[in-house]
């Protein structure tokens, strides 16, 4: 007698395996592609040189430059997609994404203020992080009561959503104000940061640690997220600590968004369309949805960034513009399919 969980588990393993291969392929593609192409045959040799700490060949130097950018794109995309899955579970709304609560707008206010003050790159990152944390704290203060309880189904979530929208509007007003008084010389970098740009983004350990911790938390909460998605009203009677789950989802998705925005600026649409596409392709089970969204989000942003730096090379486009151009029609298509 076959256990019904086995085919399901096998299918989950297959899905995650295929997406892992896609992730590796997207990173290889990013390494090979550019104004100077690196043949696939030269990559193992270049990687060996880099592992030994020898530079030298052009292929090795190009791979080193492109790999750090591609890995930053991957961790940013993965964090945004995971934050999207969590926001959608928290608000029980498939249209929720990491930016809907204004966390990214808060980060933008911090970063643009630092850029306006001609701060160093490190200070810009710190200011972005401070802005994101500040908005998260305000959100939590305003919607604290709804978080703690079972969020009497829809009322609490719409309260949180409304608070986020209003805070986001306030941040956008501050951003407009700063852009209007910024001197010409600083305007370009400020606008690129707002749209989302990976040029010159350094490869850092912190975003990987944040993504790893967020993924671990999400996978541990996956079963509870499934129960809340299906039986929101009776989740507490089924033994789910709804208040704790809501708080956890809120804080972890906030930290993931802050980490992504600090690395790459406001890259839109990844946290909205990737969880949708994964739900569409692999079903609504969070145990499969969470790892598949992280891998698909990372691969998607790596490919978008490769496009951004090669379409009109040597000039580079902001990656946020590419994700929006691809994301908008894809999202409209998904919405249309949902209606059907």
TrEMBL record:
Its main location: membrane. InterPro entries: ABC_BtuC-like, ABC_transptr_permease_BtuC. It is a multi-pass membrane protein. Gene3D superfamilies: ABC transporter involved in vitamin B12 uptake, BtuC (1.10.3470.10). It is found in: Cell membrane. SUPFAM superfamilies: ABC transporter involved in vitamin B12 uptake, BtuC (SSF81345). The keyword Cell membrane applies. Keywords: Cell membrane, Membrane, Transmembrane, Transmembrane helix, Transport. It holds the Pfam family FecCD. It comes from the Bacteria. The chain crosses the membrane at residues 70-91, 98-120, 126-143, 155-181, 201-219, 249-274, 286-304, 316-335. Belongs to the binding-protein-dependent transport system permease family. FecCD subfamily. This is Iron ABC transporter permease. It comes from Massilia phyllostachyos.
């Amino acid at each position: 007698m076959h256990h019904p969980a086995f085919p399901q588990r096998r299918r989950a393993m297959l899905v995650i395996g295929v997406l892992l291969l896609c992730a590796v392929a997207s990173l290889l593609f990013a390494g090979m592609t550019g104004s100077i192409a690196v043949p696939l045959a030269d990559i193992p040799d270049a990687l060996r040189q880099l592992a030994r700490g020898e530079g030298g060949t052009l292929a090795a130097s190009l791979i080193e430059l492109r790999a750090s950018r591609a890995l930053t794109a991957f961790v940013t995309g993965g964090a945004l997609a995971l934050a999207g899955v969590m926001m959608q579970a928290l608000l029980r709304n498939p249209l929720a994404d990491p930016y809907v609560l204004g966390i990214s707008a808060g980060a933008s206010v911090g970063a643009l203020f630092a850029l306006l003050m001609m701060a160093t790159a490190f200070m810009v990152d710190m200011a972005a992080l401070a802005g994101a944390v500040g908005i998260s704290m305000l959100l939590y203060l305003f919607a604290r009561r709804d978080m703690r309880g079972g969020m009497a189904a829809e009322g609490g979530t719409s309260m949180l959503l409304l608070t986020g929208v209003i805070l986001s509007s306030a941040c956008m007003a501050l951003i407009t104000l700063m852009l209007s008084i910024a001197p010409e010389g600083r305007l370009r970098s400020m606008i690129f940061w707002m749209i989302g740009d990976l040029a010159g983004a350094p490869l850092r350990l912190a975003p990987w640690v944040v993504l790893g911790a967020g993924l671990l938390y999400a996978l541990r909460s996956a079963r509870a997220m499934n129960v809340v998605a299906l039986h929101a009203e009776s989740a507490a009677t089924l033994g789910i600590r709804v208040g704790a789950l809501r708080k956890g989802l809120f804080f972890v998705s906030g930290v993931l968004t802050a980490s992504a925005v600090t690395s790459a600026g406001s890259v839109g649409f990844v946290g909205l369309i990737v969880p949708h596409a994964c739900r569409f392709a692999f079903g609504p089970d969070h145990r499969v949805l969470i790892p598949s969204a992280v891998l698909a989000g990372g691969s998607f942003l790596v490919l978008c960034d490769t496009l951004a730096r090669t379409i009109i090379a040597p000039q580079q486009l902001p990656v946020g513009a590419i994700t929006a151009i691809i994301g908008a029609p894809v999202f409209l298509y998904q919405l249309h399919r949902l209606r059907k």
